[in-house]
Amino acid sequence: MGAYLSRHAQVCISAIGKLVSTPVASIMTILVIAITLCLPAALHLMVRNGLELTGGWEVASDISIYLTPGASLESAEATRNLLAGRADIETIELINADAALAAFKTDSGFGEALDSLETNPLPHTLVVTPIRGLGAGGIDLLEQELSNMPDIDQVQRDTEWVETLQALLELFRRGVWITAALLGIGLLVVIGNTIRLDIQNRRDEIEIMQLIGASHGFIRRPFLYTGFWYGLGGGVVSLGLLAALQVAISGPIQRFGGLYGSAFQLRGPTLEEAGVIVGLGVFLGLIGSWIATARHMRAIDPT
Amino acid sequence: MIRFDNVTKRYPGGHEALANVTLTIDAGELTFITGHSGAGKSTFLRLIGLIERPTRGNVLIDKRSTRGIGRRQLPAYRRNVGMVFQDHKLLFDRSVYDNVALPLIIAGASHREIGKRVRAALDSVDLLSKEKQRPATLSSGEQQRVGIARAIVARPDIVIADEPTGNLDPELSDGIMHLFERFCDVGTTLVIASHDHALIERMGHRRIELSAGRVQSDSASMTTTGELFEV
Lengths: 303, 231
What we know:
The complex is a heterodimer of chains A (about 300) and B (about 230). With about 300 residues, chain A is α+β, with helices and mostly antiparallel strands. Chain A is about 75% helix and about 10% strand.
């Protein structure tokens, strides 16, 4: 048993030696694996960051309440005072219809056209900010209750575009899986092909091994370890690529966030995600070399 | 030990390398297979090493048919048959020591045992001083001896050798043959294909002569059929 394990360790290490002895070819293969792993991983991180960001927005999203047109300012104030007592509302702001029209006149540039209006078409508006941590369900409930109140014409959440974005992100998330699956198959082909070349280069050696009684497992082992190292190397390098990518885009992202007053920070892969990326590399490396050895070693069998 | 039971080997294309060969080689016997090139010597050895399978008939080892030895059992079978090849079949990317150690590594021997046995094998072919060299730096005769050391290092029950002294000078040839004799004494069965008639005569062991795939003469059976009819 000790001899078996030390033999494994030796094969494992000599597989690295073989990779190091052909550095350019090895680095190319590892880079191909790293880039292939990096693409779906980067997509996944973008989607995850997007979901985290918009998830935060939803909780803090405002609700606009348009009162029935023609309702008096007094009744609007009464409604505001009534709502201000609610536990699920953080702040409530009343926008006077006259003030809103005045602001619209100056801001929109339609001042003269608007002057010709006989009455103010705008209703009084209440802008409600729910308390933080209310959750989507709580906000739905609040919205429901508000729209059932008297004097209220329309309740509108300002989060519809966030929901649209989230639906889009969900679509992207599916896309990540599909991309990952396709690139994973591609990776199997890349690793399998590399190992196939390796097998062809060592054809004589394999034949000799078979002649002196080496089992398939014994002959296959170095190739499996080579696949393992390719996968591991590719996984680790792809983490490096992701880190570089993060550094490269975190500046613009922060500036973008700054424009919206958000202190949003791009988060790189968690320890768990890094483990999945490297583990996936190793897994694909092993499977790819397994398939290649199974397919091509039979062809060499001298019997 | 080794029994050929009406064995015929026909290669794709129709060439019949062996035809209806029936003979028995006892355990611990040293047997020479002679004959012109193309007489079927190599095929005879390859059938023992299960590098080829008979077209008809049966090869039995230890009274067991080799037909039952499938792909999965083949490696274990081969570990018990040491083979010396005409073209040496050494691995050129590793040292002489590592080449000879290979059968022991495959068998899962411990590190210490490998060291001991490899040095003993290299010593017996007089190559101990070259254990660290690569085979490519050795002469053809030296490479042949590395191949012999590899064939015997794991002490297989059967050793087959195709022209093992083909590239050696007479003095070394005698040395190698005496080495084979020593193995014979400890119970190893040796089958050696050779056309070095002078050497074979000197050794005085059993001699099977093949001609066009048939047994021309067999010194053990005394019925040297060919000669009887010729006389």
